[in-house]
Amino acid sequence: MSTLPPIAETISQGGRTGSVETAQEGFNLHFRAPAAGNDQGLTPEHLFGAAWAACFNGAVKYIAKESGHADDGITVTAHVQLHPEGPQPFSVELLVSIPGLDDHKAEHVLAKAHAICAYSKATKGNVSVKITLD
To answer: Nearest-CA neighbor of 90 among 67, 119, 111, 65?
Structure first.
């Protein structure tokens, strides 16, 4: 059985307190569990949020540009919460800033971006997501 070559290859060792690295050079990250009552520590949820924020930012930039608006200065911040016991494993809030665009036009851009973002598509129905203008 053949498989398609990966676009990105990431290797994990040690689970939630281990490490991840890419087959390509330049990325090696060690996880550590947050201490009780202390949110210090890098978790897989940070990477999930970073990946979704980057993907969504790209989608927002694309839709803004296609709609004739400037795509400079757009930021996306992802807040990720883990819900291991609930019906949806994660909830995510994406806070989006689109400088120079009024709220009505920005909401239109966000809706279209959500429809084309690969992470939004992949998590549809499995992750509670809230998209908010910041």
So the answer is: 119
What does the pLDDT average to over 101-109?
Answer: 96
Residue among 130, 78, 134 at smallest CA distance from 106: 134
**Alpha-carbon span 11 to 29, nearest angstrom:** 10
Whether residues 92 and 118 fall in one domain: yes
**Order of strands across the sheet that contains 19-22:** 10-13, 19-22, 28-30
Around Cβ 112, how many Cβ atoms within 10 Å?
Answer: 17
Total domains in the fold of the chain: 2
pTM beyond 0.90, yes or no: no
Same domain, 28 and 89: no
User: 87 pLDDT exceeds 90?
Assistant: no
Is the domain of 85 the same as that of 122? yes
What letter does residue 88 receive in the DSSP assignment?
S
pLDDT category at 119 given cuts 50, 70, 90 is very high
- Note down the domain range covering 61: 44-133
Dihedral angle of Cα 84, 85, 87, 89, to the nearest 10 degrees: -10
